[in-house]
Structure formats: structure tokens, C-alpha cells
Design a protein that fits this description.
Blueprint lengths: L8 H11 L3 E9 L2 E8 L3 H25 L1
Antiparallel strand pairs: 1-2
């Protein structure tokens, strides 16, 4: 994860709070502040969520590729 604030940290944290999620990763393409991403993690759940994130992203990318090929 990049160090420092992300362009969309507030929106990401708002989504995490509204959903009571352990973690939220927000990817924005062509937003009002340009493209970017932010991630937020809740307390001690963040360590586990961050460790799971690469696998989740790989699986998500595979699903997107499969959908685009169909």
C-alpha cells in the first residue's frame, strides 16, 4: 500500500463506516480528482484483511478478465 493519504480516503472511510466492514478498498477511474484508490481497515481486523487483499484482488482480476472475454 502506498504511504500517505489517498485521493479518496474520506469516501473510502465513509463506505467502511456505513457498511460496518472490516476493510474497504475503493478504486476510482476518472473521478473528479482523477483515477486512484484508497483502502481503509478497522482496528485489529486490518492486519488480517490486508494479508488477504492480494488474493482477493487476484481473484477479482480473474473474474473481470473472464467476464470481458465472454
Amino acid at each position: 500500500m502506498p504511504v500517505g493519504p489517498g485521493k479518496y480516503d474520506k469516501e473510502c472511510e465513509d463506505a467502511r463506516a456505513k457498511t460496518s466492514a472490516d476493510a474497504v478498498l475503493l478504486i476510482v477511474l476518472g473521478g473528479d480528482r482523477g483515477s486512484g484508490f484508497s483502502a481503509t481497515f478497522a482496528g485489529s481486523a486490518g492486519v488480517e484483511a490486508m494479508a488477504r487483499l492480494p488474493g482477493i484482488l487476484r481473484d477479482t482480476a480473474r473474474q473481470i478478465e473472464e467476464s470481458a472475454a465472454a
